[in-house]
Specification:
single chain, alpha+beta, Endonuclease I-creI, 3-stranded antiparallel sheet, about 50% helix, elongated
């Protein structure tokens, strides 16, 4: 009789843990794919003049953010094809933007922008121009810095070997 009670208790526990494991598997968020490209800390500075237009400076920030995005996802040979992309197309690809910081110092206007581009629209533009993106992979290999004294001896050894 005691064996049946223990077995029944362990059976309930086993079912409970299987149920939790299945919930964890089905509702796991480990594979998250971003739907946007985020370009942060675009800095623009312009002298403050009589015909000062803040919208023009923000448009310059959009162009600079797009150029930075193109530099990071497109090969050098294909970057020339995207130089003449109109501002209207660039604005159409922007999902959100935020002004991180703006300030006036010595009659110079400083602006820092964060711009987020819609990934699907960017890929559609690249596809229309027959360009294949190459997304950067962040390398997570550890780097071990050498102290300067070791560097000098290593360079001296390599100089002697290859001389």
């Amino acid at each position: 009789m005691k064996f049946n009670i223990k077995f029944f208790t362990f059976r309930k526990l086993y079912i409970h843990f299987c149920f939790l494991a299945l919930l964890n598997i089905f509702f796991s968020t480990a594979n998250v794919n971003a739907k946007s490209f985020s370009i942060n800390d675009i800095e623009i500075s312009t002298p403050f003049e009589i015909n000062f237009n803040k919208n023009q400076i923000i448009d310059e920030g959009f162009l600079e953010a797009f150029n930075e995005l193109v530099l990071s996802i497109v090969q050098t040979k294909d970057q020339k094809k995207l130089r003449k992309t109109s501002l209207a197309k660039i604005k159409g690809m922007i999902e959100t933007f935020s002004i991180k910081e703006e300030k006036f110092i010595n009659e110079i206007y400083y602006l820092t922008l964060n711009v987020t581009f819609n990934k699907k629209k960017v890929f559609n533009l690249l596809e229309s121009k027959n360009i294949f993106p190459s997304l950067p992979i962040k390398n997570s290999t550890p780097h071990i810095p050498l102290p300067p004294s070791d560097f000098v001896t290593l360079s001296a050894i390599s100089w002697a070997v290859f001389k």
